[in-house]
Amino acid sequence: MGLFNRLVAKVRGTSTASALDWSEIETELLSSDLGPSLVTELLAAAKKMRGDDAEAAIKEILRGKFSEKSRALADGDGLQIIVIVGVNGTGKTTSVAKLATHLHSQGKSILLGAADTFRAAAVEQLTTWGQRIGIETISGKEGAEPASVAFDSAKRALEVGADFLLIDTAGRLHNKSALMDELGKVKRVVGKVAPISEVLLVIDATTGQNGLTQAKVFSEAVDVTGLILTKLDGSARGGVALAIESALDLPIKFIGTGEGATDFTPFDPEKYLEGLLA
């Protein structure tokens, strides 16, 4: 990504771009979706730095902005129920399938719940993914109550002794009240069968500060435990990952970097920082 290479050069006093000044650096960092608060804080600290320790100092500042919460996916004895939420178009349903592929490759038994019943294509898409992976997908009729599908999925997962149940939910975001009501009902009915282990929010990295807004709304509406960041493909706008963690203290647990089933890995903060400072 290399978002900070010119900032490091400026602090070191080795920049050869005569027109490059703090204002231009600020504009560049804002365009990377770090967010105004983080950019302001970073620039204030950078202006006090001198010498060749700039990269290490900047990295330490950035490192301090990551959430300290666990990035490990809930695991343990019994069924682990993971509810995946997010607005349509973020890659939510595909992320469910990729997470299933990731867990399946580790020898875990998986069941999928296609509770995004308001979008017929989502149910079909998830069912197709399940067939490719070789795992069962529970779905209802078109337009079925999402909570009903989630409930049936939880019962089936217990019956077959699955390690994980991944529930895809509807991605409509009309207003926070409707979101809370809909997702709250899913959580309540599933909780009657078994406790929910995680609520993962899917964010599209290319949506920039809009992604941060989505994260704020969802985290206020439901008990989000972590994030899946999609389309983090090395572009210069990957700063949103740091912005979200800094603002909301929510750990990014996985990132999607492409369209393939295996283009999905646990998020590594140190590797991410290396990319920013490359």
UniProtKB/TrEMBL annotation:
<dbReference type="InterPro" id="IPR000897">
    <property type="entry name" value="SRP54_GTPase_dom"/>
</dbReference>
<keyword id="KW-0472">Membrane</keyword>
<keyword id="KW-0378">Hydrolase</keyword>
<dbReference type="Pfam" id="PF00448">
    <property type="entry name" value="SRP54"/>
</dbReference>
<keyword id="KW-0342">GTP-binding</keyword>
<comment type="similarity">
    <text>Belongs to the GTP-binding SRP family.</text>
</comment>
<dbReference type="InterPro" id="IPR042101">
    <property type="entry name" value="SRP54_N_sf"/>
</dbReference>
<keyword id="KW-0547">Nucleotide-binding</keyword>
<keyword id="KW-0963">Cytoplasm</keyword>
<dbReference type="Pfam" id="PF02881">
    <property type="entry name" value="SRP54_N"/>
</dbReference>
<dbReference type="InterPro" id="IPR004390">
    <property type="entry name" value="SR_rcpt_FtsY"/>
</dbReference>
<dbReference type="InterPro" id="IPR013822">
    <property type="entry name" value="Signal_recog_particl_SRP54_hlx"/>
</dbReference>
<keyword id="KW-1003">Cell membrane</keyword>
<feature type="domain" description="SRP54-type proteins GTP-binding">
    <location>
        <begin position="251"/>
        <end position="264"/>
    </location>
</feature>
<protein>
    <submittedName>
        <fullName>Fused signal recognition particle receptor</fullName>
    </submittedName>
</protein>
<keyword id="KW-0675">Receptor</keyword>
<dbReference type="InterPro" id="IPR003593">
    <property type="entry name" value="AAA+_ATPase"/>
</dbReference>
<dbReference type="InterPro" id="IPR027417">
    <property type="entry name" value="P-loop_NTPase"/>
</dbReference>
